[in-house]
Amino acid sequence: MFCRTSPGSTSPARRQNKEKEIKETKITINCVTFPVSTSAPEQQLLKPSEWSYCDYFWADKRDPQGASVSGFEVLLQKQLKGKQMQKEMAEFIRERIKIEEEYAKNLSKLSMFPMAAQEEGTLGEAWAQLKKSLADEADVHLKFSSKLQSEVEKPLLTFRGDNFKKDMKKYDHHIADLRKQLVSRYAAVEKARKALADRQKDLEVKTQQLEIKLSNKTEEDIKKARRKSTQAGDDLMRCVDLYNQGQSKWFEEMVTTSLELERLEVERVETIQQLLRQYTTLRHETDMFNQSTMEPVDQLLQSVDPAKDRELWVKEHKTGDLRPVDMDI
Amino acid sequence: MFCRTSPGSTSPARRQNKEKEIKETKITINCVTFPVSTSAPEQQLLKPSEWSYCDYFWADKRDPQGASVSGFEVLLQKQLKGKQMQKEMAEFIRERIKIEEEYAKNLSKLSMFPMAAQEEGTLGEAWAQLKKSLADEADVHLKFSSKLQSEVEKPLLTFRGDNFKKDMKKYDHHIADLRKQLVSRYAAVEKARKALADRQKDLEVKTQQLEIKLSNKTEEDIKKARRKSTQAGDDLMRCVDLYNQGQSKWFEEMVTTSLELERLEVERVETIQQLLRQYTTLRHETDMFNQSTMEPVDQLLQSVDPAKDRELWVKEHKTGDLRPVDMDI
């Protein structure tokens, strides 16, 4: 729908000429009015170099099914998807937790198996500590899984509270309502425009008829037609005013709300970055604690002494130190 | 059984006196002859301060069931038990290997789960690397389990070859045979001793009978009896000689073989110490390699940039940067 030239011009010929001279500078798509891109000085971005949401989501687009989707809807879906991403990341961490708990359980069980429990002395001690170290490793992994739960998984699940979805719905409805209002105000403009055109045509016909003395229309009829035409013009102006107010309101709310969504997205990315760093910190810690379970084992292995073990064993198991001698006759 | 005084004494009374004066200095137990512990200067240990096998396993002992067990048998059992210990340690390592393989398998599977695969930009890259790091961890643990198998489990199972049990059997039979020989030679000594006693008693009786002119025994008979007595004395000497040779042989083999078992035990303890140190080395390595899987993740998390991600996303998903303008009338 193109906009019309101002009401009140008289000659059709002259009007046609004017239409040829005045290029179309604006276009209304889905009831939103844009400058035609080739006309006028270019608009400056509201937030240059920031790739801000408030600069890039004014038009509607078509989804794969052909339905119209507002730019704001695209922004909103991005936020809802972000919440889904958190949830999936938390699930991933949950799966890691389960794997760690299984590993810990297996190590713990094995540490209690009686293999070579009868080994004695310094070697026996070192072996016993080696077996125990598996229980220590199990503890390290249990601690890891416990911290994963409290310091990564839980925050991932909860840092956007339950209110998040409600807030998104609120924004959604608010912006959509402003668009709906724009639609009805645009319809009013179109209606008023048509009414004006009808009134103008009527006036023109009546004026022509007067000039060629076609009918018995009096000056009175023409005045009435002219009055109605003027009134229709006033109606149109009022409708256009209301429309422009509605569009301005929607514009303001778009800027405010899209910037809020932008802020929320920055917050989401930074929070996730922080939580994933916590994950890597916990992994580093875990590997270090795990290394330290080897220290007592290394120490005892260092102390393994075959001579000492022989002494201990011989003292316990010797049968007699008197050596045999020749029998006398 | 006590040893007898030398053959050839004449008066029973005198003999009894000699028996009272000569204390028992030796005792034969299970056909092995020992000094009585209170007699004679104390024996010096063959290897003082070493608690050597060759010094402490001369006597037999009784097992809980009351059967007689040689000192050598105790040493041999120790070596066979040592082989059992190795086997059990290897089983323990095998169980650890299974646990590591399970852990690696679980991490590997999880790394391929599609959670949050739709996250994009710098955050998406960091997340993807975090997921991949689980596959890297899995590789670290698989490498660990592989080295556990080749550098710890396998050597534990094989460092005493199949020949070990055969060798132990050979030693067992060899020493046991020498003891059996001692038993039969001791029996011969006892037999010869008894024969000598009989010959001596016969001579005594015949001599007495001659003195009191009891019988018609001639000098000839007494000479014969005396000859038999001397011969029995020679037999006894020969039997005692053979016995002593047999005991010396057994003694030598005991010293040699028990020292070999002692050496084998030192080797066993040192080898196991070395293999268990290899275990702790592998564990240290593993924890270090595991830590390094976090490096690329840390780097990418460092690079997470909400502004950059916004730019990437907006460039891809923007709907239009022309802002709406007022409608003209």
From TrEMBL, chains A, B:
Gene3D superfamilies linked: Arfaptin homology (AH) domain/BAR domain
Coiled-coil zones: 193-220
Keyword Secreted: no
Entry annotated with the keyword DNA repair: no
A Gene Ontology BP annotation from the UniProt entry: neuron projection morphogenesis
Record domain F-BAR: where: 49-309
Any Gene Ontology CC annotation: clathrin-coated vesicle
InterPro entries referenced in this protein's UniProt entry, alphabetically: AH/BAR_dom_sf, F_BAR_dom, FCH_dom, GAS7_F-BAR
One Pfam family hit: FCH
Keywords of this entry: Coiled coil
Designated name of the protein: Growth arrest-specific protein 7a isoform X2
Native source species: Carassius auratus (Goldfish)
Gene name linked to the record: gas7a
